[in-house]
Amino acid sequence: MDIRPKREKSSYGMYFSPFRAELLPSFKVDFRKNLWYDFGSGEGGTMIDLVMKINSCNFREAMSKLEGNETPAIILPQRPAFTTNNTVLRKVCPLKSVALTEYLVQRGINLDAALRQCVEVNYSINSKIYYAIGFKNDAGGYELRNRYFKGSVSPKDITTFALSSHPKLIAFFDFL
């Protein structure tokens, strides 16, 4: 199956649905958010969900396809990398800041769980130094959160845990 966009805008493409025959493209793929939505069926999700649905496969098989070990069924246009992330990692240490731990408690996060999974990350943006709660991803980057900032230090990736045979995609604060 080779699916290419029929119409393209700067941030998304419209495709014929891979799930039915149609005369007008009703399947949207958002290139920046890596999300899809099928207007004909009302379904949507992440690109991982799409690969699983198109190929009737599980999470691990879908990840293998997305990592380039197999040819993907849907062809996304080649675009230059879109990034505005000028966040620079400076230092990683155990989570000890009173301001950050108070933020976790105020958000209803179990502090013991957070201390097991998170670190304190010192980072800079445009030479100004900040600190945040860091949650390490599979590629070695960090998701960052503090009372005033929600961002990341590249490389951007997901974080996987071998907790269940049914993978779920959730935000790191929801995980905590």
Describe the protein's topology:
Layout: E1 7-8, E2 12-15, E3 27-30, E4 35-38, E5 43-46, H1 47-55, H2 59-66, E6 87-94, H3 98-106, H4 111-117, E7 119-125, E8 128-136, E9 142-146, E10 149-153, H5 172-175
Antiparallel strand pairs: 1-2, 2-3, 3-4, 4-5, 6-7, 7-8, 8-9, 9-10
Tag the structure with descriptive keywords.
21% helix, 2 domains, 176 residues, five-stranded antiparallel β-sheet, DNA Primase, Chain A, 5 helices, alpha+beta
Structural summary, described in words:
The protein is an alpha+beta fold and 176 residues long. It has five helices and ten strands; from the N terminus they run βββββααβααββββα. It has helices at residues 47-55, 59-66, 98-106, 111-117, 172-175, and strands spanning 7-8, 12-15, 27-30, 35-38, 43-46, 87-94, 119-125, 128-136, 142-146, 149-153. The strands form two sheets. A five-stranded antiparallel sheet has the order 1-2-3-4-5. Strands 6-7-8-9-10 form a five-stranded antiparallel sheet. Mean pLDDT is 80; it is low at 77-84.
Mean pLDDT: 80
Strand content: 25-35%
Give the SSE order as H and E letters: EEEEEHHEHHEEEEH
Counting DSSP H or I runs of 4 or more residues, the number of helices is 5
Question: What structural class do helix, strand and pairing data support?
Answer: alpha+beta
Shape: elongated
Biggest β-sheet: strands ordered side by side in the sheet? 1-2-3-4-5
- Uncertain runs with pLDDT below 50, 5 residues or more? 77-84
Number of domains: 2
Radius of gyration: 19 Å
Task: Characterize the main sheet.
Answer: 5 strands, antiparallel
Tally the beta strands: 10
Q: First CA to last CA: what distance?
A: 39 Å
Helix content: 10-25%
